[in-house]
């Protein structure tokens, strides 16, 4: 939500500025409902003890970009409902991107834990062994060694068979239910 706040606040301040200061050559823009900053008079905004010249040079890029956005909003003249819809889209994008980051982390965690489990089992049992210089594993299917890759594009039944065989070997029985067997567990 922190990344949403920055985008939303920029949109809200730009919208308020487009309504209050609609002139294209205006140097003022709103920060909040009762606060505005004037790019032409930054020394008043920052105060003498905070080095206004250096800060104005540093922040001039932000002011130019902000004014460019305000000028676009002045041209478009969006309603409050359209601004609310834009805020909804911003929220949607933030939530979607954060969930993708979280999903990537979760997939990476599942992959690492699955590979560690298979490595541990391969050291303690004879049904699994790792190919030399690779992350691919060979699983004993009862008659022959079958290669099982670490890519999620590999056949789902191979992974399901692998998990089932490992489970049966560890416990002497199947402790995984059908939902876990049919679940597509990504190893990437």
TrEMBL record:
<feature type="domain" description="NR LBD">
    <location>
        <begin position="2"/>
        <end position="96"/>
    </location>
</feature>
<keyword id="KW-0675">Receptor</keyword>
<dbReference type="InterPro" id="IPR000536">
    <property type="entry name" value="Nucl_hrmn_rcpt_lig-bd"/>
</dbReference>
<dbReference type="Pfam" id="PF00104">
    <property type="entry name" value="Hormone_recep"/>
</dbReference>
<keyword id="KW-0805">Transcription regulation</keyword>
<keyword id="KW-0804">Transcription</keyword>
<protein>
    <recommendedName>
        <fullName>NR LBD domain-containing protein</fullName>
    </recommendedName>
</protein>
<dbReference type="InterPro" id="IPR035500">
    <property type="entry name" value="NHR-like_dom_sf"/>
</dbReference>
